[in-house]
Amino acid sequence: MRADLEIIQQWVKPGHHVLDLGCGDGTLLDFLQRERNASGYGLEINPDHITTCMSRGVSVIEQNLDTQGLDNFEDNSFDIVLMTQALQAVRRPDKVLDEMLRLGDEGIVTFPNFAHWRLRWGLALSGRMPESEALPYKWYNTPNIRLCTFQDFEALCRQKGIRIKSRRVVDGQHQNSWLARLWPNLLGEIAIYRITRENRS
Amino acid sequence: MPDSLPADSVGVVTPQTYHFETPIELACGHTLDSYDLVVETYGELNADRSNAVLICHALSGHHHAAGYHSMDDRKPGWWDTCIGPGKPVDTNRFFVVSLNNLGGCHGSTGPNSINPATGKPYGPDFPVITVGDWVKSQALLADRLGIDCWAAVVGGSLGGMQALQWSLDYPDRLKHSVAIASSPRLTAQNIAFNEVARQAITSDREFHEGRYYDFDTLPRRGLMLARMVGHITYLSDASMGEKFGRELRDQAYKFGYDAEFQVESYLRYQGERFSEVFDANTYLLMTRALDYFDPAYEFGGDLSKALARASCEFLVLSFSTDWRFTPARSEEMVNAMIAARKKVSYAEIDAPWGHDAFLIPTPRYTDIFTAYMDRVAREAGT
């Protein structure tokens, strides 16, 4: 099993009601439905992904976070709101984080670390915007318009009064790596954060 | 006329009439002591009767949804694009049931049927039928066909309203409800258009208070106008623009009021043709059924409360240029389903054809509809 799914499923309790922002082809929700008896919805805008979700029985809603927001969802209507590998692609990640914790008790966010040593190295040596397996785009066509580092994200959480309950760092293949744990902002490629509001237990 | 039947056609089909002797109580308080429903079926019911799909028609639809009645037919059934072997509603896997609704004018009991009490056509004495009444009669038809539970109830526009109503009235008798280009209730604008249509009909001198059958005439003019205004709401500005633009039938303006623009002559032709084949009283009845549909009404306007009793899964589809039932109307349904924690999938399909897009196969529409119905079939064990 992919390490990130393994980690995320540990945080989802049986029967949890889950919202997955940018659910892709529904792999994660399908997995949580089967392994955790979770219910809930995925939001997606990619037509092929939406069709795949429908085909595998994942409830998917075509909804664009940037243009439509999440106003149609009620406060505290989910146990967990997930956002895997999509935070860097929305126009206002800060507002999406607020919305995640308005809708759910807990949020789980994963994103690529722009301070990974290979990206730093590439930028330093070539003077060009780095590309990697996790970020395989050119600067002008990338959907990843809000790239940040683990430290950036954690600073934003502090500023917003968002408490980080756990953080797990994996490499590009979503594998655990002791090096990444040791020096995450330099050696970790993808982080999985479990967040909640400061005043929540 | 097809010289030979296309491979993905259900072929030549024959409608069947089911007669019901048990009185049906209607929402308006009236009772119909007996009635007929005209039905077409495509495909085979499997051994455990789990693969039945009900198709619900819209305002001017009927039982003839797919295939041909004879090799001389010019056109196949109204939803032939989506029903047939290998099509989204795949007749190799599903047993498809399509009926003409009560109050219709294509063979099921309606205003132009003979009222057994008088020996004359019902006309205006035919009771106003609601979406709930249709669903009730469809459930009785399911009983007759030996179908305890539909794999899916599917409909576009007014048909989608029936699919929604099914999930509320008979939650245990369907696994999936598919509402395409539909709405949980009409807006004031929708009702206003219906009212213009009704006024056109009832103000026709040949209408005779709905008893035109007795005068051996038809309110053709009124029905034609009703259809013309309705037809405009089924298309989009862009699709009308592309089809007709400002094209003239002749080279130059004639400085008169005949049909000079292509769009005028098209609308007149559509209206005239329709007025020959459709019953004006049925048109009144269907538009009223649309106006009255509002399952949230008895729950203080809260559709999510109405949906509490639903247990099926939902597929809701809308079309980007549909201004009759806009994507926002579909999203209203979807949001209520989300609030009620029902399983629902939703997509807004980019298509230029306005409300009519639900009848026209576009790649994405076909893909989604096929993918969803494929899962319905897999769950039904076919």
UniProtKB/TrEMBL annotation, chain A:
Domain of life the protein comes from: Bacteria
InterPro entries (UniProt xref): Methionine_synth_MetW, SAM-dependent_MTases_sf
Recorded coiled-coil stretches: none
Protein name (record): Methionine biosynthesis protein MetW
Organism expressing this protein natively: Marinobacter aromaticivorans
Upper classification of the organism: Bacteria, Pseudomonadati, Pseudomonadota, Gammaproteobacteria, Pseudomonadales
Gene encoding the protein: metW
TrEMBL record, chain B:
Active-site residue list: 157 (nucleophile), 322, 355
Entry's EC annotation: 2.3.1.46
Binding positions for substrate per the UniProt entry: 227, 356
GO molecular function list: homoserine O-acetyltransferase activity
Pathway named in the protein's UniProt entry: Amino-acid biosynthesis; L-methionine biosynthesis via de novo pathway; O-succinyl-L-homoserine from L-homoserine: step 1/1
A Pfam family the protein falls into: Abhydrolase_1
Keywords tagged on the record: Acyltransferase, Amino-acid biosynthesis, Cytoplasm, Methionine biosynthesis, Transferase
Enzyme class: transferase
Complex formation: Homodimer.
Family: Belongs to the AB hydrolase superfamily. MetX family.
Name of this chain's protein: Homoserine O-succinyltransferase
Species per Swiss-Prot/TrEMBL record: Marinobacter aromaticivorans
Gene: metXS
